[in-house]
Design brief:
It is a single chain. The chain is α/β, with parallel strands linked by helices and 375 residues long. The chain folds into two domains: 4-271, Acetylglutamate kinase-like (Carbamate kinase, 3-Layer(aba) Sandwich); 281-373, Archaeosine Trna-guanine Transglycosylase, Chain: A, domain 4, CATH 2.30.130. 38% of the residues lie in helices and 18% in strands. It is built from 14 helices and 13 strands. The protein has helices at residues 19-22, 31-46, 58-66, 75-99, 111-115, 117-132, 155-165, 202-206, 219-232, 247-252, 270-278, 289-297, 339-345, 353-357, and strands spanning 12-17, 50-55, 104-109, 136-141, 170-175, 196-197, 236-241, 259-261, 281-287, 307-312, 319-323, 329-334, 371-373. The longest helix has 25 residues, at 75-99. The chain is globular, with a radius of gyration of 22 Å. The two termini are 15 Å apart.
């Protein structure tokens, strides 16, 4: 488990900055905050660290340029505003980084880039090459062309995907909150900050609230989902307030700001990272205690006999989640059967599948080789 004092050795760092961190309450860009962020990142690059910036703010920049009074609500409106704001945001970053002698590159990603393994690998090659060349990649989801079913959904998840793809040592998510609290600090004055999370349990996930501000779309829930991706990919993650000057430098110095999620001792191989986090999740199955024990402790594949519930619509080859009877996510994997077929065979022994379906292509609903444990 990585401790705070070891963060000083982090070489490859992904920094995610949220909309609320780099914009004013008016929705317009906070240029002073942006300048301080750029200066801090530039100084770290001068120390021969590799930095990738994942940024929100394109829609906010577009809102300001178009003179809109509120955030657009429909997908076409958001895409149009993002198309205006993306160039403004990058122009601002490029100008600020150039003042400190840094070269930047814009990289736009969509969920489609991670769904296809070739694109997933190409994204890795592009980003690592840019870092080798001393360039700072600035990444955002391609809001101008993405539609709901193709969107990664939020830049918290995007930053964790990027950290996983490039084998980062550290992911820092800068938000409008100090970190993960025992309750919503805006509603409960007794809420206390959790300095460290060793394991993301169901209880920890239940602490997550909704979006933290009217400008942002992430909320603490998406940050915990990002933490799942990061720690299972061997990346330590810290959530901290983006409003604190010098926060990145302080985190790397071991200061106890925010909440740290230490990476697991083992890191998933690249293929399994794509399997667990690159593919879109389209459904779930819930299993009983006996099946849970077999998966977690005996290295078993998922068999129909242990399944008690199916949720969602999916086909053979899709990625689905495996939940415990308490609702905790245990694993993800490629299913050999559709949701309709699993509903018909769940609870049945393997030798009964032919009788129920008329044919049996596989003994396993999910083979162990196509499954990734998350606990």
């Amino acid at each position: 488990m990585v401790t705070r004092c070891e963060l000083v050795r982090a070489k490859r760092i992904v920094v995610k900055v949220g909309t609320s961190t780099i914009t004013h309450s008016t929705g317009k860009l906070n240029l002073l905050r942006l300048e301080k962020l750029v200066r801090e990142i530039s100084d770290l690059v001068n120390q021969e660290k590799e930095l990738i910036l994942v940024t929100s703010g394109a829609v906010g920049a577009g809102i300001a340029r178009l003179g809109l009074q509120e955030r657009p609500k429909t997908i076409p409106e958001k895409q149009a505003v993002a198309a205006v704001g993306q160039g403004i945001l990058m122009q601002t970053y490029e100008k600020l980084f150039a003042e400190y002698g840094q070269v930047v590159a814009q990289v736009l990603l969509t969920r489609e880039d991670s769904n296809h393994r070739k694109r997933y690998i190409n994204s890795r090659n592009t980003l690592t090459t840019l870092l080798t060349m001393g360039v700072i990649p600035i990444i955002n989801e391609n809001d101008a062309v993405a539609v709901d079913e193709l969107k990664i959904g939020d830049n918290d998840t995007l930053s964790a995907m990027v950290a996983s793809i490039v084998d980062a040592d550290l992911l820092i998510i800068l938000s409008d909150v100090e970190g993960l609290y025992t309750a919503n600090p805006q509603q409960d004055p007794t809420a206390t900050l959790l300095a460290e999370v060793g394991e993301i349990t169901t209880e920890i996930e239940n602490l997550a609230g909704g979006p933290g501000s009217k400008q942002g779309t992430g909320g603490m829930y998406t940050k915990l989902q990002a933490a799942k991706i990061a720690v299972n990919s061997g990346v330590t993650m810290v959530i901290a307030s983006g409003g604190r000057d010098g926060i990145i430098r302080e985190i790397l110095a071991g200061a106890e700001y925010g909440t740290i999620f230490s990476s697991k001792n083992h890191s998933l191989e690249f293929r399994k990272r794509w399997l667990a986090f690159g593919n879109r999740i389209v459904g779930t199955v819930t299993i009983d205690k006996g099946c849970e024990n077999a998966l977690l402790h005996n290295g078993s594949s998922l068999l129909a006999a242990g399944i008690t519930k199916v949720t969602g619509e999916f086909e053979h080859g899709n990625t689905i989640r495996i939940l415990s009877s308490e609702g905790r996510e245990l694993a993800r994997g490629l299913t050999n059967y559709s949701d309709d077929e699993i509903r018909r065979i769940m609870g049945a022994h393997t030798d009964k599948i032919v009788q129920i379906l008329g044919a049996k292509l596989y003994d396993e609903v999910i083979h162990r080789d196509n499954m990734v444990l998350l606990v």
